[in-house]
Amino acid sequence: MMVMRTIVHIDEELCDGCGACISPCAEGALILENGKAKVIREELCDGAGVCLAICPTGALTLESRLAEAFSEQAVEKHQAGGSSHYIPQHCVSCNVSEDDAYLLAIKNRGKSLWYCTRCLPRLIHG
Ligand code: SF4
Cβ neighbours of residue 80 under 8 Å, at least 6 residues apart? Predict the structure, then answer.
């Protein structure tokens, strides 16, 4: 069902295909295709915009337009099928993978940098 709503917009000119936005999307709505981020299906994107803060190039924005309605059932089905598009992020300080540690995104000078919970105290306290 098409509805007027907020949904992510990807500027392909700005997207460099780094993949940083793929795994932070809780719904698994994003994939990399031909070196560019892409929304797999509109019904998987809830328009929350978490990915916006992650993108280092400003390629992601939110727009209001006619789109397929967000569907939690579609997300559950999508996630139950397992995502082959998972791209784990790494701590910029010690390089540990999010598969092995908890990572938090920290904004600095317009960039989102991932830090694990072991390295974060050093960043805070110096
Ligand atoms: S984080 Fe930005 S530049 Fe990187 S793949 Fe996603 S949209 Fe493209």
Answer: none
